[in-house]
Structure formats: C-alpha cells, structure tokens
Amino acid sequence: SWYNPAFAGTRVPTLKQYLNEITRTHQNLILELKSPDLYPGIEAETLAALRNSGWLDRGHVRHRLVVQSFDAKSIKEVHKQRPDVKTGFLGTPTQAQLPEYARFADQ
Questions:
Q1: Would you state the pLDDT for residue 9?
Q2: If you average pLDDT over every residue of the chain, what do you get?
C-alpha cells in the first residue's frame, strides 16, 4: 500500500458492499461524487446503485442520504435525475451565483 505497508492487500469495498453494511448498521450516508469528469455517467450509475440497494426509498431520501460534490455540473445532474435526493455543493460560489446554485443544491 502507498499509505502504509500494514495496509498491503487490504481491499476497498464496492459501493454495493458499503451500502449493504451501512444499511445493516442503520447509519446515514453523505456520499461524495469524486472526479465526475473522469467517470462519465457516474451520477446515473451511483443513483442506480443507491436504488438497487434500497437507498432511494422515501425514508432514506428524506432522512438518511445526501449526495455531494465539488463539481456543480455533477450535482445538477443528480438533481435533474432525482430532485428528491438532497444534494450538496462543496465549492465556494460567489454571492451572485447563490440563487443559481440554490436551484439544484440543498446544502
């Protein structure tokens, strides 16, 4: 492992595996979409994984799930596909941009 030899061979769980684990332990989820420009369609794929794991039902969407990113286009896409999912923009828009960002970002 680049981080520390003690982690050599450690496997990173898939999103599906992680969703199953946090469902089992009744945790909430703040999911950050990383580098969406490198992964075209990551928004739809992530929403599909959430749906397939039961995370897009009313209870999860209302109380347990936030999808966020530093990429405004990515958050717009999530909002377009699922306006009921809470979204967060992690960047620093100017004061003049706030009304525009408020149309697609909840946080």
A1: 87
A2: 95
| 28-72: pLDDT as tens digits | 999 999 999 999 999 999 999 999 999 999 999 999 999 999 999
Report yes or no: 70 and 52 within 8 Å, Cβ to Cβ: no
CATH 3.40.50.720 for domain 10-102, yes or no, is no
CA contacts within 13 A on the Cβ side of 14: 8
d(CA 36, CA 41): 8
Close Cβ partners of 13 (under 8 Å, ≥ 6 residues apart): 21
Mean pLDDT of 4-33: 93
Residue carrying structure tokens 């946090």: 22
| Residue boundaries of the structural domains of the chain | 10-102
- C-alpha–C-alpha distance, residues 101 and 85, integer Å: 15
DSSP-assigned letter for residue 31? E
Within 2-91, residue ranges assigned H as helices are 15-24, 42-52, 58-63, 72-81
